[in-house]
Amino acid sequence: MSLPIPQKKQKPHYIGHRKRLRERFIIGGADAMQDYELLELLLFMAVPRRDVKPIAKDLLSKFGSLPELMSAPHSAISQIEGVSENTATAIKIVFALSARMIKQEIMQKPVLNNWARLMDYCHMSMAYETKEHFRILFLNKKNMLIADEIQGSGTVDHAPAYPREIMKRALELGATALILLHNHPSGDYKPSQADICMTNMIIDAAKPFNITIHDHIIVARGGYTSFRNEGLI
Questions:
Q1: Domains of the chain with bracketed CATH
Q2: What number of other Cβ atoms are within 10 A of residue 63's Cβ?
């Protein structure tokens, strides 16, 4: 009696897919890939034995884009089916590394000479927040960044800013100039009358200390507004 010939166990289909995707990235770089494919490459490292294409597409469908995904809270990312705590952490680490890289580039040279990179950093850091934050960039005599701090966090349409506290902090740091920043979660990056009034109050508070307010930037998903460019400072 002949014994049955054992069937060769087939490798999961995603094994070959992973290899091909990695090769495409190595040869063609990120420009040769779609957003969900780049996300797949990241998920390969966090999810070693599973087809991650559906997860990558679900993440982008849920959050709308890579920037919105990367900016989303850890808790929101981990709620997606198939996304573990470790996977959500891996996504947030990539975002943190990107922000840190841009910030270090900014700190190596005068901020005003690297404006485009500064706007990249501000957009990455604030554009997709769900609450308003009032942020200050403190600069030294050479207009180099010495501190980047959130001075107040509020609701979806308001963040507190206290001129006296801002000046106190600037003096503590030895700052000679400031760039004011805040985000509009609504997506509208045009300044309100309240934004203009607050900016003028901070400018007035800074004058006795010879502290310059270079600009006030409002950041939103669709872009940003510079008070300086709009003639509001």
A1: 13-99 (1.10.150), 110-226 (3.40.140.10)
A2: 18
Nearest to 34 by CA among 18, 57, 63: 57
Closest CA to 218 of 148, 131, 126: 126
Cβ atoms 187, 220 nearer than 8 A: yes
The mean pLDDT values, 10 residues at a time, for the chain of 233 residues are 52 68 86 89 83 90 88 88 88 88 78 82 83 90 89 69 91 95 86 89 94 93 87 86
Closest CA to 109 of 140, 153, 76, 80: 140
